[in-house]
Each structure stands twice: as structure tokens, then as C-alpha cells.
Design goal:
Mean pLDDT: 83
Shape: globular
Low-confidence stretches: 1-47
Helix content: 25-40%
Strand content: 5-15%
Radius of gyration: 18 Å
Length: 266
């Protein structure tokens, strides 16, 4: 127990002291390496032998990200429509909820996610052993400079890059995240998120899902066409809300967009 506690203390100290520019190759890499000596020494379990963990990924507008992660669930896990878990939502804010909810932009500014410090993310429930595969898919969303597709369009903390994992930077999954980033070209700095973090180009904030949980977005945001040209997805994708079991979570008392239309945030 004592060596594990010392390792965790070393991880915490490294993360707290890490300047932004050092995180990619030094901070989390060394912290995850310290953990691997004590936590990851046991035999790895096969994907089917582990309980699924809840993780989330944020990379600008969640519409496109959800589509890519739905396709990843199908390809990596062979999931059928009813088994898909990718849902659009919000995470990363210090305020949590307001009046018990988190909402999209709306004219009355009721529980608005940006004012609560949240970013747009997509949640998954996956076997821990497959996290690296999904992290690799996430890093593919960025170009060679580490910019997301809507880097110079959607800006602000609502669109910052996030990865949520149980335990955050002290999780064994942090080491997997670092390895996936390197295999994808080491395009982003990876830093410990502390909530309400800024939108920094080529930076991904790592969040602890226990401290910064996921809040599901309104139904009209789920399985939506992307915003960019060429992201008009098939109707079979747009209608997934009626088939996905986890879509039952999408009940919301939030206003239906700025004008109550529920289209493009209106």
C-alpha cells in the first residue's frame, strides 16, 4: 500500500506543478510511468472480462464528434444500433448544474452550459482495454498542428478539447492516453484540467469523471448532422435516438434552443 500511496503523491505533485508546455512529453508521461510500476503490474484483463468505464471526449462541436465515435463503437466493438453508448453532452465546469440541469444556449440563459463552465463532449461506455483504440480515434480528429476541424470557427471554453477518464491524470488510463497521442503523431499537449479551463489550441485537458461528470444534452442534439460541408449524415444515423437504449437518458426540461425551434441552436 505504501509504495502505491507514494506513487500517487508523486503523480499529484507532478500534475500540480506542470506548466502547460511541458505536459506532453514530461508531466503526464512521467506521472503515468510512476503509476505503471505499482498499479499496472498485474495481468491485463481481456475486454470482455472488465466492466465498462464511462469516458468522454471533447473536440469542438459535439455533432461531428458523436458521429465519429458512433462509427468507432461499431468498428472497434462491433456494437449494434441498440448497443451504442455515444451521447452528446456537457462536462468540465466547476459549477456542475444549476437548478438541477445543464442546458444548451437559450434566450433565457437558463442553466446555460457555457456560463457553468462546461464544454461540449461525447460520452462513451467502453471496456477499459479498448480505451487506447478510442483515444487513437479521438486524436485523428486533429490536424498535423493539433488543431481541431472548427478551431477558428467555434471558439471559447464551450469548445475546448477534453478527455474525461475515471481518476483523471492519476488514472492508469492516462498512460494509455499518452501512448495513443504519441502513436498519432504527438500533436497535442495533454494537461490536467481543473475546471472552467480555457480553450487552448493544440491542448487537451484531462478531467476526472468523478469530479467533472457528464451531463447529457437535449434530444435535438443527438445524432445530428455535422456543421461542416459534407457532414450531412444518412437518415439511418439521424434516427438512432429511437433505437439506442441509452438514449432514454435524453429527457430534458431545458428550453429548446434560442427560439424554441431546436435547430442549429435556435
Amino acid at each position: 500500500v505504501a509504495p502505491l500511496l507514494l506513487s500517487l503523491l508523486a503523480v499529484t505533485r507532478a500534475l500540480k506543478l506542470a506548466p502547460l508546455g511541458l505536459t506532453r512529453r514530461n508531466c503526464l508521461a512521467s506521472a503515468a510511468a510512476a503509476l505503471s510500476a505499482s498499479v499496472l503490474r498485474g495481468p491485463a484483463l481481456a475486454a470482455g472480462e472488465e466492466d465498462d468505464v464511462e469516458v468522454y471526449f471533447g473536440c469542438g462541436c459535439f455533432w461531428h464528434v458523436q458521429h465519429e465515435l458512433v462509427e468507432a463503437e461499431r468498428r472497434i466493438l462491433g456494437r449494434k444500433d441498440s448497443e451504442l453508448t455515444a451521447l452528446a453532452g456537457y462536462a468540465g465546469g466547476l459549477a456542475g448544474t444549476k437548478d438541477g440541469k445543464v442546458c444548451y444556449h437559450n434566450a433565457l440563459q437558463i442553466s446555460e452550459y457555457g456560463r457553468l463552465g462546461h464544454a461540449e463532449v461525447v460520452r462513451l461506455k467502453i471496456p477499459p482495454a479498448t480505451f487506447g483504440d478510442f483515444a487513437t480515434e479521438y486524436f485523428k480528429l486533429f490536424d498535423d498542428k493539433g488543431f481541431r476541424p472548427d478551431q477558428w470557427g467555434d471558439r471559447g471554453l464551450e469548445y475546448r478539447n477534453l478527455v474525461g477518464i475515471p481518476g483523471g491524470g492519476s488514472s492508469p488510463l492516462a498512460k494509455t492516453l499518452i501512448e495513443s497521442s504519441k502513436s498519432a503523431g504527438d500533436k497535442l499537449d495533454i494537461a490536467k484540467g481543473t475546471g472552467d479551463d480555457a480553450d487552448k489550441p493544440a491542448v487537451t485537458w484531462v478531467m476526472d469523471t468523478a469530479q467533472f461528470p457528464f451531463y447529457v444534452a437535449e434530444g435535438y442534439h443527438q445524432f445530428h448532422d455535422g456543421f461542416a460541408a459534407g457532414e450531412d449524415y444518412p437518415s439511418a444515423y439521424n434516427s438512432l435516438a429511437s433505437k439506442v437504449k441509452s438514449a432514454k437518458l435524453m429527457k430534458s426540461t431545458c428550453p429548446n434552443g434560442m427560439l424554441g425551434v431546436g435547430v442549429l441552436g435556435l
